[in-house]
Design brief:
- The structure is a single chain.
- By secondary structure, the protein is an all-alpha fold.
- It has one domain.
- The chain is built from 9 helices and no strands.
- Helix 4 runs antiparallel to helix 9 and helix 6 runs antiparallel to helix 7.
- The protein is globular, with a radius of gyration of 16 Å.
Length: about 200
């Protein structure tokens, strides 16, 4: 069984604070109606959106942490694959392609990535990349639908991609820092908090 399952109640209690805080943040952020903007600016708006949208931030942050946790090539292949697939899905959204259950897919991506970190899930790199790609489709499509509404779609897209890269790098850094303390259980606790946020989005 994964290490998380064997943790005694005392250690689980240490995770209650981050999990509660993350869940409260998501609950206050509201559902993904924030994805559909009546109007958006250029680079600054594109950069700010993933930084201020808790659902996208958590998913991209988790990709970096999971990549760092898995180690090897996954440290960079996961964070590189996510924005590439997201960009392709964004183009599909801009072209008018219809994708249903987008918000459910986004919420499930947060839940799944959080659980992968919490359970220290190690899978073949190809399987991890497949999962990352599926999640990226939902995130990219949501923003592709928004792009035509921006006053400067190209600048908005560049800002969004740059912000995504920054969030991935932040996740990698946090993941690497938390690998050793308490044998990586701090990272697992953060993953549990992210998974709790995913549950909050699903029931919102």
């Amino acid at each position: 069984m994964p290490a998380l399952v064997r943790l005694p109640p005392v250690r689980l209690a240490r995770w209650a604070g981050p999990a509660t805080l993350t869940t409260a943040l998501v609950a206050g952020a509201g559902p993904a109606s924030a994805h559909i903007l009546s109007s958006a600016g250029g680079f600054a708006s594109g950069f700010a959106h993933p930084m201020t949208g808790a659902d996208h931030f958590l998913a991209m942050f988790a990709v970096g942490i999971w990549g760092a946790q898995m180690g090897g090539r996954s440290v960079w292949t996961l964070p590189v694959t996510f924005p590439l697939i997201m960009a392709a899905a964004g183009l599909a959204g801009m072209s008018g392609l219809v994708l249903t259950h987008v918000e459910t897919g986004i919420a499930l991506s947060i839940l799944a990535l959080g659980l992968a970190i919490a359970l220290r899930l190690r899978v073949p790199e190809a399987l991890a990349l497949l999962a990352i790609s599926v999640f990226a489709v939902f995130h990219g499509y949501a923003h592709g639908v928004e792009l035509p509404l921006a006053t400067d779609p190209a600048a908005y897209a560049v800002g969004f991609v740059v912000a995504t890269g920054c969030i991935h790098v932040l996740g990698i850094g946090v993941g690497l820092v938390l690998l050793r303390p308490m044998r990586g259980r701090l990272a697992q606790g953060l993953g549990a908090a992210i998974a709790a946020a995913g549950v909050a989005y699903l029931v919102a």
